[in-house]
Amino acid sequence: MSHIVTIRTQVRDLEAIRQATRRLQLPEPTFGEVQLFSERKTGWAIQLRDWRYPVVANLESGRVDYDNFEGRWGKQQELDQFLQRYAVERATIVARKQGHTTTEQTLVDGSIKLLIQVRGEG
């Protein structure tokens, strides 16, 4: 039986962040206080491709703070791609811990189709 799920992403899992940055060939995330343009944030800094400032993930709140100056300091699609990859990595980690298998497929539009074979089904 197939189920379609929409995930609203909260970034709370460091291992999923690390997996996402590796898969996207981004630098390893670092923890600390980060200066965005006009304020400082503390959390896991993720340096996206061609972004002036990193995005900062607060694992307690699930929030991601960033300043891309409405796209002038970094393309929104780079952040969207990271969040999509993070969600896939997090879902994969959880599924595998529960004994399920996963398969992913990148679609023509760049979205990712993640199939989870639930143990005992199929």
Keywords:
four-stranded antiparallel β-sheet; 122 residues; alpha+beta
Write a structural description.
With 122 residues, the chain is of the alpha+beta class. The protein is built from 2 helices and 6 strands; from the N terminus they run αββββαββ. The chain has a 4-stranded antiparallel sheet, covered by helices on one side. Strands 5-6 form a two-stranded antiparallel ribbon. The protein is globular.
Q: Care to give the gist of this entry?
A:
This protein is an alpha+beta fold and 122 residues long. Helices cover 26% and strands 25% of the residues.
What is the helical fraction, as a range of percent? 25-40%
Relative strand content: 15-25%
DSSP summary, beta strand count: 6
Order of helices and strands: HEEEEHEE
Poorly predicted ranges (pLDDT <50, ≥5 residues)? none
Distance between the termini: 8 Å
Please give the largest β-sheet.
4 strands, antiparallel
Tally of helical segments: 2
Question: Average pLDDT across residues?
Answer: 91
Strand order of the largest sheet: 1-2-3-4
**Structural class label:** alpha+beta
Shape: globular
Please compute the radius of gyration using only Cα atoms. 16 Å
